Amino acid sequence: MEHQIETGQTPEQWSAALQERGIRLSPRTLREKARKYGTYYAMGRTMLLLGEHIEAMLKAEAQRDAAERAKAAGEARRAE
Length: 80
What we know:
The protein is mainly alpha-helical. It has one domain (2-79). The chain has 4 helices and 2 strands; from the N terminus they run αααββα.
């Protein structure tokens, strides 16, 4: 658990760090996605995210987007 405390960051910290790299994600969005995918540590009202949590959220979102695109393509083919 020591590793998580040392390397974990709040959604606000992650948002600021990502913004420095040109990636705009609000702390609120990060919290929502973390809760949606269960990729976070929490104690009380404090949420900590690790780099692996951010990666897991990105992968899950990419899979969701790919599934939606495949579904839309299938529907378009059926409509033809």
